[in-house]
Structure formats: C-alpha cells, structure tokens
Amino acid sequence: VKLIVDGNTDSGELEQAAQLVADVSPQISVFLQPVTPLESSPLLMSTPSPEQVLSWQALMKRTLKLVRVVPQTHKMIGQL
Hints:
Elements: E1 2-5, H1 11-24, E2 30-34, H2 50-61, E3 67-69, H3 73-76
C-alpha cells in the first residue's frame, strides 16, 4: 500500500489507514511517500519535514510491521 503524504497530512488519518491495513493483515507493507512539489505545477503542496515523516512512520509501526519511507523518485529523475 502506498500513501502519498504532505505537510498537511493528518496523523489521525494515517492511524486509521494503518488499522484498515492491519485488519486485513499486519504483514502488508505500507510505503509512505512524501510529496515532491514540481516547480512547474500550479498546485501548492507542502513538503513534510523529516521529523513529520519519521513520526508518522513510528505511529504506523505501532500497528503494522512493515512501514517504509520512499521518495518520489520519478520526479527526481524528470519522469513527470
């Protein structure tokens, strides 16, 4: 399961998502993917701080075994 997160992500929603996944199986991997704003995008996105992302990961790991943080590499290499 992949969850895109930004600086305005609500930790309660992540806790709810973790519980929904765990209800199926706590062994399912969850990937938190911090948003990477594009300079050319008219959308205003707030990149989460490293502290926020690590806090969210720890929160979700209370319920799930495998919670990883992965950047949006497709944006980094110009694939979007």
